[in-house]
Amino acid sequence: MRAAPDPRPARRRSGRASTVLASAVLLALLLGAQALRIHDDEDRTAPIEASGAASEPVDARSFTVEVVDVAFARSVYDESGFSFGGDEADAGAADGAVEANGVWVVVTADITAAERTLERVEAELETGEGTTYGSSGVSMNALGSIGDAFSPGIPRRGAVVFELPPERLASPSVRFNVFSGLDRRLSGSALVDLELSGSELKKAVDGAEEAVAVPQSEIRKA
Amino acid sequence: MFVRPFTVRRRGTRGPSSRGCRMSPNGSNPREAVFRSAFNPLSGRERARGAVRRLLGAVRAAPGAVSSFGRSFPSPPLGPLSFPFVAHHLPDLDDGPDLPLPRTVRGRVLLAAAGAPVIALLLVALWLTGGLDDAKAVQFKTAEPGKAVQNKLLKATLHEASVGADPDLGGYRLEVRAELESLADEPVPASQLNTLFKVDFGRKDLKAETMRVRLVRLPDTELGDLQPKMPEEVVLVWTLAEGDPADDKIKTAEETFGEDFLAEPDDVSAQLAEVDKAEITVTGAKFEPGFTDPAKRWWTDDKTAGVYTLPLEKG
After folding, report:
1. Is B142-244+265-314 a CATH 1.10.150 domain?
2. CB nearest A131 (choices: B218, B224, B228)
3. What was the ipTM of the complex prediction?
4. pLDDT at A124
5. A72: which of A8, A88, A102, B52 lies 20 to 30 Å off by Cα?
6. How do residues A12-26 score in pLDDT, each as one tens digit?
C-alpha cells in the first residue's frame, strides 16, 4: 500500500518553527532565572541594603538613620561624660587627642530602631573611588560601644569616626549596619551619601578642625 | 604529582610501515630508495657529483637546449636519464618531515661549526641563571631587615626583634617592630594577619603562639582593622610557650580547652637564654572561605614571600 502524501506540509513546518521559538524563549527564561540566583554563599545572607542621601532619613527596614553632621579633624578625643569638672575634664581629654594618620571624618547620626531592640553598629566609609574604610576603634564614645541600645521608636544620636588619607576621598558615603547579637545575616543596612564632592569636599578637608570631641551617644526625644 | 598516561607517537620510523607500500610514479617503492641510499657505499659528495654529471649529460643530449636557454627545455629527458633520477633524493613523504640535516659533509661541518657556539652560549646562560638546580631553592627568599616584603594582602617591613618578660599577660613574649600597609580595598581585621607570619627559633622546645598587633603611635591600643592603603607602624607581639620536642600529635579538645588552657604562662627563660636570633617568615596570602564558615577571609597560602632573620635583643 502506498503511503498517503502529507496533506499539510506547510502547517507542519510552522509547527516546527513554533517549537523552536518556544524552546528559545524557555532557554532565555532559564538563563534569566540563573542570572537572578545569588551564587556567592556570603552574599546570599548579606545585610539587606537601602540607600539614600544625608539630607533625609534613610529607612533600612529594621531601623532608620539620619546623618545630622559631618566634621573633618586633624585629631579627635572622647568628650568626657562627667558633668563635674566641666571644661577642665574636657581639657584633660583633649590632651589625649589622637592625631590622624591622614584626616579624621566624624559623622554624627540619629539612629532609630523599628521593631526590635538593636545594640550593635558597624559603620564603613566608602570613599567613592573604590576603597572602603572601617570605623576606628580609637574612640570609646563612638556609636556601637557597649551599652548603646537602640530601643524601637526612640532615636539615639551618636558619632562614628573614620581615619583615612584625604586624597582617597572622592564622593564619600557611610554604610550603617545596625543589628543585635553576633549575627548580622539579613540584617538592615543603610548606605548614606554624604553629598560632598569636588571643591566642596576639598574645602571641608582643607578646613579640618584641629581637634574634635566625639560625644557620647544619647537618647533624643522621639 | 600529575602523571600523564604514556603514549608513543610513531613519527619518522624507519621500520616496516603498517600503512602499506605506496608506489612511486616511476614504479619503485620510495622506501626502497631509502634503503638503497642507506647502503650506498658512495659518500654524499660523490653521489652529488654523479648527479650533476648525469644532469649535464642530459642537457647536452637534449636537442635545442644548448642554443637558446629558456625557450625549449628538455622534456622529458630520455636516454641516459631514464634511470638515474629514480628515487635517490626523493623526500620520504610517507614519514613526515625528517630533521633537515645537510646531506653533504661540508654542510654538516658548517652546521656543527655554527651550532657549537650557540649551544655553548645557551649553556653559559643556563649556568648564569642558576643551572638545573631544584627550583624550590630559589623560592627561599631572604629579606633584609628594613626591606619590604609583599604578598597579595599587604606590604610588610620588619625591623628589629626583642624578647623578654610580658608585663601585660605574664610569661614571655617576642616583639617585632614592623610597618604594615594593606593592599586590599577593604579593612582587614588584625586577627586575619595571624597566619601570615611564622616564627621559628630553630629549636623545638620554644614556639610562638597567637600574634597580636599593637600600634606604635598609641602604645596601649591594639590594631583593630588594618585600613586600606594606610601605612601603619606596629609592634607584632607573640606570646612564647614551651614546645614539646617529642610530641607532634594534634591536641584533643580536652587538652586544648581544658584547665591547662587557663594555666600559668610557660616559663621559657631557659630556652630564651640560648637563642640569639629568630627566623620570621612572611607567607603569601589568599582570600578564601574557611572550612566551616562560608564568609571569606584572609589566610596564608603556605608559600614564602620572604624570610627575615632578626637578631634578638634581650630585655
Report:
1. no
2. B228
3. 0.81
4. 96
5. A88
6. 888 899 999 999 999
